[in-house]
Amino acid sequence: MKNSVEYHADNLYKPSFFFNTMNLHYLSWPDSEKYLKKHVVLLPVGSLEQHGLHNQLGCDFMIAEKLASAAASKKEILICPPIPYGISKHHRHFFGTVWIEGETFKKYVLDVCLSLATHGAHKIIIVNGHGGNTSSLLEVVGEMRHGGVACIIFEWWKVEGESFLEEGLFGKEFAKGGHADAGETSVNMYLHPTLVDLKKARDRDVVWSPKVHGGQFKVDTIDFTDIGSIGFPTKASHEAGKKIFENAVEELTALIEWMEKENVKNLLEKRHK
User: Fold this and answer.
1) Could you list the residue range(s) of the whole structural domain that residue 222 is in?
2) For residue 219, what pLDDT is reported?
3) DSSP 3-state percent helix, strand, coil across the chain (nearest 5)
4) Taking phi first (over 0 means left), then psi (-120 to 50 degrees means alpha), and beta for anything else, what does residue 79 get?
5) What is the C-alpha to C-alpha distance for residues 244 and 74, in angstroms, rounded to an integer?
6) Displacement of CA 266 from its chain's centroid (Å)
7) What CATH number corresponds to the domain at position 74?
8) Tally of domains in the chain
9) Which pLDDT score is estimated for 216?
10) What is the dihedral of CA 183, 90, 153, 178, to 10 degrees?
11) Which stretches of the chain score pLDDT less than 70?
């Protein structure tokens, strides 16, 4: 099954785009066999949680899915259906947020990866769209590596980091990492222009968990923002989102190519002497 669609931003808005990428759920079981055994497999994960007054609830998993699809459009790479629910309990005070406890999430993702490994997948990239998932996903990666499967996490906001945002998109004072901030809102505007209402965006200083006399305690999102978002989403733009997204696609594509070439033995846990 050849990929017949070149990556182009406009295609991301069209259902036909996804039918021409290597989505596992579109293939028959015989067609899936050779791709599972010979190639890297992408697993998008995210969350269904509030993203301020201006973004849709599905922002995280929808961005992860589009990113995986854009990278896969350049190569014959299998994409699993996205896992839309994540570790989002701290957003529970905002309507529409659906969360999974950390242990449940970890076990769910681990079971998916183990299932893929049963069918011959030995190199898996988890394309994560939600920072709250990271610690649990690192545990999944560690267990898969211990079990003989090379697994790695890719997160688009860590590709270039804050310096990339500061050097030409928003300016240093507005490039602080937040939630539904200028960077995330820009990417969402580029991918889902009809779902973002920038007129509703409100800026909030980035204060995640206040420190008191050197101490730090766990808080919920509602404790430091009444609207859900943190950062400066009013600075977001379609153009900035395009730059961030395309840069992330290039990096994910490079990661896929590197992982395909690398001997899987070099990616696994070293054995005790």
Assistant:
1) 9-265
2) 86
3) 50, 10, 40
4) beta
5) 18
6) 25
7) 3.40.50.10310
8) 1
9) 76
10) 20
11) 1-21, 160-168, 173, 175, 209-210
